[in-house]
Write a structure and sequence with these properties.
Blueprint (H helix, E strand, L loop, with lengths): L1 E5 L5 H11 L3 E5 L17 E5 L8 E4 L17 E5 L13 E3 L12 H16 L2
Helix pairs in contact: 1-2
């Protein structure tokens, strides 16, 4: 599994550690200003990082977006090879960029989760979907 981060900055370390914990192969960075900082403990160098110049193909791409109707538990994980998630300030671009879209339903007043919280839930669902 790959994770595409769009305009993620200050949360990059936490996202990296979350990705490593779930066995992500690569973090793809698009318009990300952040850099990994300090000690990542056992996670260092276990997840490849690549900066992209443009948006990748929509095939196999799942976009996490709090403003879509489909809940994450309905994702066809067999077709997903990359999860795209946008930074907390800008989110993802508002144009058709993925094969599938999903939201993580919330019940509180806050509609959007932090990048690392949303990613952890998505990666948990991916791993759970693999075992079904």
């Amino acid at each position: 599994m790959n994770v595409l981060l769009y305009r993620v900055g200050r949360n990059l370390n936490r996202v990296y550690r979350t990705a490593e914990a779930f066995g992500v192969e690569r973090l793809l960075l698009l318009e990300c200003t952040g850099e990994l900082q300090g000690n990542l403990f056992k996670a260092t160098d276990r997840v490849a990082m690549e900066r992209l110049a443009s948006w990748p193909s929509t095939v196999g791409l799942l976009a996490l977006d709090a403003h879509v109707q489909g809940p994450i538990w309905r994702v066809d994980w067999g077709r997903v090879h990359t999860i795209a998630i946008g930074g907390e300030t800008h989110g993802l671009p508002h144009r058709r960029l993925a094969e599938q879209y999903a939201a993580i339903p919330t019940v509180g007043q806050v509609a959007d989760l932090t990048v690392e919280a949303a990613l952890a839930i998505a990666l948990y669902e991916w791993r759970r979907g693999e075992s079904v």
